[in-house]
């Protein structure tokens, strides 16, 4: 993953903490479309690549764990070119 | 309508999606849609409900509704069937316009939509307004908000007199939904009127916003809500952005640290707007010179009464029952706490005086969320509060899992209104007289005593 350590649950929680200005320990596990957009954006910034996410994958994301599974799958998929 | 929105040169580009849509093309699309709406049963004085995500189809059908002499009922596409059905029953549109197919997904700002038009009722519109918008919840007094054509035109003209808005020939990088007042009037209608190109980024990310800015040579203003400031402040630009003139946000107060992070990175002004669905733009600080205060927009008067901001508004904007504590004698009572400086006239908004909160720029009334939770089968009582996010404390009257509760709410409340945190408690804290306790501290203690 382009020299970056593997993405973990704690990474996503700290990204959400940045959005909500809460301690990571108090971040809710449930995420909506705004939190999801924020996570995709920050993960893309961190790995300097665009995540190729299908609509049905995004629609099924309801929790931090759902998001983590989808992001990990996308990050380990081979990139074009 | 044509003279206000279609008066410019036919070859001028109105929308870039990213394929350019010029004024002549838009006009042709609107005329064709008008024929379809009329064929489906829309008559002058009737209403069309638009249940469309931000899309060319939304723009075209909105303008076609007005051209057909109809009232446009704007329903956020994220509302559930339950919420939409209640609104339609009350507002009796003649036709409903909804997607048959939607292309592009969850992270898109503008989507490809093939729309379908269905006949709904054969009644005239409930009021003479040109547009109807719902504040959070569609029942109860002062929940259905109407704006007349004259009022919308006046707001568009107000924008033309505000120093710091995008000028003719420039571009607006459009992030807010055009179903709501900032994107609708400050983006779409002002842009069409003034000859400003509207450019929705390809997706909701910082990189996509920067790509939209870089894709043209003309000056660009980014219009958004505070969430979008965070997106841009956390994006590393690949190069310089000489086209970027400023970013302007509305919807809620911007923390000083977020404003600083943005201006440090981009070196352009971060403007601030204050407005309401009922009246549109109330005041602005587009140069970021008075943060957090704003100067009233031309023609708007703001006064403070008993700690609440009142805004001049000649006629009640509410359809049906109007609560006299929300509008009376030409003044809209904003329910925003604030002050007006006697010397400078600058207005400072301090926060809400009621149970309304802002989620990513969207207004949500916590009483609506609480009523929805309380009405669910299996719930004995519920308290919904804002605790850095919508938080529900629920006392079930039988077996009820958090998962079931979440699923039931997903059928009844749009995603942005749903509680992010659910707490199930055997007993909700109550006062000695049996009233539910609403203090966040007491509720938190009840979860982890």
Structure description:
- The complex is a heterodimer of chains A (81) and B (449).
- Chain A has 81 residues and is mostly helical.
- Chain A contains 4 helices and no strands.
- Chain B has 449 residues and is an alpha/beta fold.
- Chain B folds into 3 domains: 17-147, Rossmann fold (3-Layer(aba) Sandwich), CATH 3.40.50.980; 151-354, ANL, N-terminal domain (Rossmann fold), CATH 3.40.50.12780; 360-447, ANL, C-terminal domain (GMP Synthetase, Chain A, domain 3, 2-Layer Sandwich), CATH 3.30.300.
- Helix content of chain B is 29%, strand content 28%.
- Chain B has 12 helices and 25 strands.
- Chain B has helices at 2-5, 23-40, 56-67, 81-91, 149-160, 181-194, 206-214, 226-233, 256-266, 366-375, 402-412, 440-447, and strands at 13-16, 20-22, 47-50, 71-74, 95-103, 112-119, 131-134, 144-147, 171-174, 197-199, 220-224, 244-249, 270-276, 280-285, 295-296, 302-305, 308-312, 327-328, 331-340, 347-352, 356-359, 362-365, 379-386, 390-396, 421-424.
- Chain B has a 7-stranded mixed β-sheet with strand order 10-9-11-12-13-14-15, sandwiched between helices. A 6-stranded mixed β-sheet of chain B has the order 6-5-3-4-7-8, with helices on both faces. In chain B, strands 16, 17, 18, 19 and 20 form a 5-stranded antiparallel β-sheet that branches.
- In chain B, β13 and β14 form a beta hairpin.
- In chain B, α7 (206-214) packs across α8.
- The interface between A and B is medium-sized, with 27 and 28 residues.
- Classify the fold: give the CATH topology of the largest domain in chain B: Rossmann fold
Helix residue percentage of chain A: 55-70%
**Alpha carbon gap, first and last residue of chain A:** 15 Å
Mean pLDDT of chain A: 86
User: Class by helix and strand content of chain B?
Assistant: alpha/beta
Low-confidence stretches of chain A: none
Sheet bearing the most strands of chain A, described? none
**Name of the CATH class of chain A:** Mainly Alpha
CATH domain class of the largest domain in chain B = Alpha Beta
CATH homologous superfamily (4th level) name of chain A: ACP-like
| Reported CATH architecture of the largest domain in chain B | 3-Layer(aba) Sandwich
User: Could you say what the CATH topology of chain A is called?
Assistant: Non-ribosomal Peptide Synthetase Peptidyl Carrier Protein, Chain A
- Annotation field: number of helices of chain B: 12
CATH superfamily of the largest domain in chain B: ANL, N-terminal domain
Average residue pLDDT of chain B: 92
Outline type of chain B:
globular
Oligomer: heterodimer
Q: Span between N and C termini of chain B? A: 61 Å
Radius of gyration of chain A: 12 Å
Structural class of chain A: mainly alpha
Instruction: Give the total of beta strands of chain A.
Output: 0
């Amino acid at each position: 993953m382009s020299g970056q350590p593997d993405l973990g649950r704690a990474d996503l929680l700290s990204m959400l903490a940045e959005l909500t200005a809460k301690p990571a320990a108090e971040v809710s596990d449930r995420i909506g479309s705004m939190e999801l957009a924020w996570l995709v954006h920050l993960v893309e910034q961190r790995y300097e690549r665009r995540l190729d996410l299908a609509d049905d994958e995004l629609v099924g994301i309801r929790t931090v764990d759902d998001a983590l599974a989808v992001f990990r799958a996308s990050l380990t998929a081979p990139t074009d070119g | 309508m044509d003279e206000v929105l279609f008066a410019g040169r036919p070859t001028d580009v109105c929308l870039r999606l990213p394929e350019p849509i010029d004024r002549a093309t838009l006009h042709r699309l609107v005329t064709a849609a008008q024929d379809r709406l009329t064929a489906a049963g829309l008559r002058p004085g009737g209403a069309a409900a638009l249940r469309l995500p931000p899309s060319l189809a939304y723009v075209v059908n909105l303008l076609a509704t007005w051209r057909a002499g109809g009232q446009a009922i704007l329903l956020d596409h994220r509302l559930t069937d339950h919420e939409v059905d209640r609104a339609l029953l009350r507002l009796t549109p003649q036709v409903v316009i909804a997607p048959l197919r939607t292309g592009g997904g969850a992270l898109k700002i503008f989507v490809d939509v093939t729309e379908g038009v269905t006949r709904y009722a054969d009644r005239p519109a409930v009021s003479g307004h040109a547009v109807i918008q719902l504040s959070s919840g569609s029942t109860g007094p002062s929940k259905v908000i109407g704006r007349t054509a004259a009022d919308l035109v006046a707001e568009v003209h107000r924008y033309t007199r505000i120093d710091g808005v995008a000028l003719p020939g420039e571009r607006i990088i459009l992030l807010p939904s055009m179903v709501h007042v900032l994107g609708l009037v400050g983006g779409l209608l002002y842009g069409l009127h003034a000859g400003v190109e509207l450019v929705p980024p390809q997706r909701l990310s910082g990189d996509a916003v920067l790509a939209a800015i870089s894709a043209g040579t003309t000056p660009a203003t980014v219009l958004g809500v505070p969430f979008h400031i965070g997106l841009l402040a956390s994006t590393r630009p690949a190069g310089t952005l000489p086209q970027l003139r400023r970013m302007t946000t509305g919807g809620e107060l911007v923390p000083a640290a977020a404003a600083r992070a943005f201006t440090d990175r981009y070196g352009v002004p971060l403007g601030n707007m204050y407005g309401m669905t009922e009246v549109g733009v109330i005041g602005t600080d587009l140069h970021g010179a008075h943060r957090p205060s704003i100067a009233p927009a031309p023609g708007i008067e703001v006064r403070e009464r008993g700690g609440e901001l009142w805004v001049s508004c000649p006629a009640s904007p509410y359809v049906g029952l109007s609560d006299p504590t929300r509008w009376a004698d030409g003044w809209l009572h904003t329910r925003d706490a604030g002050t007006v400086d006697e010397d400078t006239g600058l207005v400072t908004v301090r926060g809400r005086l009621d149970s309304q909160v802002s989620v990513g720029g969207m207004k949500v009334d916590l009483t609506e969320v609480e009523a929805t939770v309380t009405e669910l089968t299996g719930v004995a009582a519920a308290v919904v509060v804002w605790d850095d996010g919508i938080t529900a404390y629920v006392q079930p009257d039988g077996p009820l899992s958090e998962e079931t509760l979440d699923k039931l709410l997903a059928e009844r409340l749009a995603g942005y209104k749903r509680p992010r945190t659910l707490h199930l408690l055997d007993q909700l804290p109550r006062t000695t007289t049996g009233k539910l306790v609403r203090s966040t501290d007491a509720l938190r203690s009840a979860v982890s005593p």
